[in-house]
Amino acid sequence: MSTSRSRWPGWVYGVGDEPDPRFSLANERTFLAWIRTSLAFVAGGVAVDAVDLGLDDGVRTPLAVLLVVLGVVCAVASWGRWARTERALRLSAPLPGSPLGVLVALGLVAASVVVLASL
Fold it and tell me: Which keywords, in A-to-Z order, does the entry hold (predicted)?
């Protein structure tokens, strides 16, 4: 039988008590939603580079890179958010804040401004 000490990452599962499974599962669903968002950013960046949208190369390549980088950052940050939240649940501590929503919003605004400026 697996114990909390043998689960990875240890700094998350090795502390506190098992929370109500509903909370852990909700945290996991939120993590997966952020992963879907990051996948959409990466797919959007690939599409901007692969599909002829009539954008100049000087705009298309940086826009594609911005979207792919935003996708990677979103994926990494969402894992950190999941881990900090799970640890807080186990310790009955207040849930941590996350700048992830602001990061995604700013990235989308930047990408939209680049597209609108190039039309």
Answer: Cell membrane, Membrane, Transmembrane, Transmembrane helix
